Inverse folding.
């Protein structure tokens, strides 16, 4: 299953989520950001590749729908409600991501 994690600048939250799931036997994970300043920018190709799209905040979901309406029409976009309060691989962030994502993977 292909997972994409999205935040604003692809610096802390989505790369942490990618790191958690990228070496898992059942999942392939990638991450991207919605902002022009994102380290890795979200593309239609990445969204097409994804089986599940996880966004950190509601505004990320709306930006994706606004920018890629045809691409995500049949996709599941899941809002994790994880604020931009953590650094990369912060223990609380890892736990928050795992607890929010696991219901969709089990």
């Amino acid at each position: 299953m292909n997972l994409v994690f999205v935040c604003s600048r692809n610096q802390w939250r989505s790369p942490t989520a990618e790191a958690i799931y990228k070496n898992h036997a059942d999942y392939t994970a990638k991450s991207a950001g919605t902002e022009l300043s994102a380290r890795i920018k979200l593309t239609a190709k990445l969204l097409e590749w994804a089986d599940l799209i996880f966004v950190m905040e509601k505004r990320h979901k709306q930006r994706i729908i606004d920018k890629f309406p045809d691409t995500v029409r049949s996709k599941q976009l899941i809002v994790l409600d994880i604020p931009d309060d953590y650094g990369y691989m912060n223990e609380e962030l890892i736990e928050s991501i795992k607890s929010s994502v696991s219901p969709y993977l089990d």
